[in-house]
Design goal:
- The protein is mainly beta and 124 residues long.
- The chain has no helices and 11 strands.
- A hairpin with a 5-residue loop joins strand 5 and strand 6.
- It is globular.
């Protein structure tokens, strides 16, 4: 059974930083790509960042240079460090695990397991 639990969301002023954590349970965590997605009210869920099993990363253009994704396989953690936050980053952020041994999945349909989400609100 795979469970993903996000933490670290909250309210921050524009220009500030937040660090999101995703704690995973289940076997073979290190074998799967992990992603962070976000969904704002009235909008579709969108990719924020992906980290492959080998540690390669991919970022949405909107967060490139501001956000950093990392993983600690020993602790089964995925971290999203968010700096220089903007009001448009406001959304519910979700951690997800790929459904198969995909190298760099970038769409929600390629992910099988999802966390419950954590709210990030950036005030102007």
């Amino acid at each position: 059974q795979v469970q993903l639990v996000e933490s670290g969301g909250g309210l921050v002023q524009a220009g500030g930083s937040l660090r999101l954590s995703c704690a995973a349970s289940g076997r073979a965590f290190s074998s799967y790509a992990m992603g962070w997605f976000r969904q704002a009210p009235g909008k579709e869920r969108e990719l924020v960042a992906v980290i492959s099993s080998g540690g390669s990363t991919y970022y949405a253009d909107s967060v490139k240079g501001r956000f950093t994704i990392s993983r600690d396989n020993a602790k089964k953690l995925v971290i999203l460090q968010m700096n220089s936050l903007k009001p448009e980053d406001t959304a519910v952020y979700y951690c997800a695990r790929a459904g198969g041994l995909l190298t760099m999945p970038t769409v929600p349909a390629q992910y099988l397991y999802w966390g419950q989400g954590t709210q990030v609100t950036v005030s102007s």
